[in-house]
Amino acid sequence: MKINAFGIAKDITGASQIEFPMEETFVKVKDLKSLLYQKYPDLINLPSLAISVNLFYASEETIVNKHDEVALIPPVSGG
């Protein structure tokens, strides 16, 4: 699975797009986050981390297919 990373998530993962192996065809977002936290423990320190699936914000229960477009969206600030 290819995962796009933005902002500080990109800095933590070391790339704007990471290849993330998936053993199962479908997983829930909460399970994907757990796997990401294991591989990139500094992600846990973010005050929030949104996941988008196919260009829509996903809930923890959203099912992710290994062919979906997934992105890590860290907290943003602005004015």
UniProtKB/TrEMBL annotation:
InterPro entries: Beta-grasp_dom_sf, MOCS2A, Mopterin_synth/thiamin_S_b, ThiS/MoaD-like. It comes from the Bacteria. Keywords: Nucleotide-binding. Belongs to the MoaD family. This is Molybdopterin synthase sulfur carrier subunit. It comes from Echinicola jeungdonensis.
